[in-house]
Amino acid sequence: MSYFSDIYNGVKTLLTGMGVTGKYFLNSGKGAITQQYPENRDTLQMFERFRGEVVMHHDENNEHSCTGCQKCELACPNGSIEIIWDRGLDPETGKKKKMIDKHIYHFGMCTQCGLCVNACPSNAIEWAQNFENSVYDRTQLTRVLNKPGSKVKAGIEE
Amino acid sequence: MNISLTLSEKTHELLSAIMPPSVASIVEMILIAVVYLTFFAIAGLFLVLLERKVAARFQLRLGPNRVGFQGWFQTVADALKLVSKELTGTVKADKFLYNLAPYFVIITALMALAVIPFAGYFQAFDINIGVLFIIALSSIGVIGILLAGWGSNNKFAMIGAMRSGVQTISYELSVGLSLLTMILITGSLQFSEIVEVQRNGWLIVQGHIPAVLAFMIYMIAGTAETNRAPFDLVEAESELGAGFHTEYSGMKFAYFFLAEFINMFIIASIAVTVFFGAYLSPFGITESLPWLGLFWFLAKALVLLFLMMWFRWTFPRLRIDQLLTLEWKYLLPLNLMNIVLMAVVVWLKLTIQF
Ligand code: SF4
Ligand code: SF4
What we know:
The structure holds 2 protein chains of 2 kinds.
Chain A: H1 2-31, E1 53-56, E2 63-64, H2 71-75, E3 81-89, E4 96-106, H3 115-119, E5 125-128, E6 142-144, E7 151-152
Chain B: H1 9-18, H2 21-58, H3 74-84, H4 95-114, H5 130-151, H6 155-186, H7 191-197, H8 203-206, H9 208-225, H10 237-240, H11 250-275, H12 293-312, H13 320-347
Enzyme class (chain B): translocase
Family (chain B): Belongs to the complex I subunit 1 family.
EC number (chain B): 7.1.1.-
């Protein structure tokens, strides 16, 4: 008998599905979620979860939280991140520690997979929402994420 | 040669008056061909636009709205683009078959249009085996698909063609059998007679339960036969990387594309004719105005087309084994039972007539 109940359930679920889309169809005049892009460029709001490009967050003292652990570099499947680092003297403790010189991000190769952002233990890098990224020369897509003269925020490493 | 071209009785008289009969009939055929080709092109463009508009609404999007008023010229622009595109091909393809395939597909679609009674005065070819003719034609379309896959000399296109062939051939059974169910009531394969029978109530009312079942089976099988979603394994862009028409470009691809939409229109038209009284108005409200027939026909066809689009934008795509299970395990046995049911209904005179 499961043969006929299968048919019954099949038809029922199909009708449920059609009910849902039917409701959308009737209401979509009011609630279209598409945005008229070039016209609304000024008011356009991108979504929080949109992945534009990877940026490194700097606070008002030009400090970031990247410790140079290189986990993002390892996590990136296509080698879009290169970290140039050296050991320097910590001015407070006087000990030697790892510091980034340049956190290089090859945006042109990035697939926006987000693995680097997930891998970062100190949430130093995050997604920006910009998306008009076309340029005529791809060297412009190679970015140095840490700003000049920036340093690591105190208390991140522990 | 004496083909009754119903469309043109008046034109026929007019033409015969001014030229010899043989020339007249040739001119007549050319005229009809032009009318149908125009209709075909307009219907194709309109359906593509409609599909996109409807899809947009179902998915809470805006849809085409740039070219012309509310985007109404979008498909014209698309067509121009397709016409101007380069026709590429593969070096090792079987050139003859490769080039022949799109015409197979499109010509069968065109020929099927000829027997559909758009209105009492607008039916090119009222043949007495109309239903059979249409079923036979739709099987020729499969050959076009298989040729396309074979001629492309590309194993993915070949697999795609096999998949599509298996699908079309399987569902053809259900289409044929569900139409056969209705033929039990009408007792005729001629479209004009099928329409006449429905003056006493549309067949879906006359045949009630088995007719509704047949209609449901027909719509499912028809959707599958035109390779539309949720049965569009033929060209599942995101999953399979397209099927039998992978190697086609520009206008040749457009032929396949257009044929799909015309086939969809044909499926809807047959459903309108066989289940919903073709060009007859509901309850005969415009019986005295026969020229409204075309309007009623197109209105009914549009409702069914909308239903098929609703399917497309609601249901997820089936896997090939699910697709075949649906046909061979469910639709076909149900269909056979339904025929017996209909036979009993007709035999015991349980049909509803006004
Ligand atoms: S998003 Fe992915 S591809 Fe891009 S830099 Fe991060 S890990 Fe690499
Ligand atoms: S960005 Fe994050 S993961 Fe990458 S080196 Fe800096 S702290 Fe480590």
